[in-house]
Amino acid sequence: MATPVKVHGPPMSTAVSRVLACLLEKNVDFQLISVNMAKGEHKKPEFLKIQPFGQVPAFEDGGVSLFESRAICRYICEKYADKGNKGLYGTNPLAKASIEQWLEAEGQSFSPPSSVLVFQLAFAPRMKIKQDQVVIKQNEEKLSRVLDIYDKRLGETRFLAGDEFTLADLSHLPNTQYLVGVSGKGELFTSRKNVGRWWNEISSRDSWKKVVDMQKSSA
């Protein structure tokens, strides 16, 4: 039996949960290895060998080690193209290009303000760090502008890259889960008809439900 791939990091991490969702969509067996970040395990020499920046996730597949969640997801989709959801990363150049442009939109436009909000609203209170209301307001406004563009797009297509669920949609799940489910900012998504419909659909996928269950059991 083949050795399952290894994912190092806590499922509460948005980047770790992105990789877990991708593995579940692709039906790839994996081993989740706990990393106690409160104890600094992500900064120890043995961890830095597989993740030189001391962040999570770190990923191992046989003799291959990778970091950065979006790169890991692309690798999983290419390496295990014939498993699970075969269209997750597109099956032709045009489909891939459409997925890539929305992955770029997620990484460059959606992730910066949404990540700030996730930290300020979901993690800062747990870490007993004072919330910065000015920063929250600024990033809500930035994210609102992005979601206006998304709402227009999602009025034309069922999902971001077309009419099939892809890695472009999956990559939005981690941050949105915190904003809708924990931070009380769900109206940013649900107040927009098409974005709300899209979120309800992508967050109802079995793969993501399993990730959320993993987060709950590790909390």
From TrEMBL:
One of its GO terms (molecular function) is glutathione transferase activity. Belongs to the GST superfamily. Phi family. Residues 3-84 form the GST N-terminal domain. Keywords: Cytoplasm, Detoxification, Transferase. This is glutathione transferase. The lineage of its organism: Eukaryota, Viridiplantae, Streptophyta, Embryophyta, Tracheophyta. Residues 92-219 form the GST C-terminal domain. The keyword Metal-binding does not apply. GO terms for cellular component: cytosol. InterPro entries: Glutathione-S-Trfase_C-like, Glutathione-S-Trfase_C_sf, Glutathione_S-Trfase, Glutathione_S-Trfase_N, GST_C, GST_Phi_C, Thioredoxin-like_sf. Its main location: cytoplasm. Its EC number is 2.5.1.18. One of its GO terms (biological process) is glutathione metabolic process. It comes from Carya illinoinensis (Pecan). It catalyses: RX + glutathione = an S-substituted glutathione + a halide anion + H(+). It comes from the Eukaryota. It is found in: Cytoplasm, Cytosol.
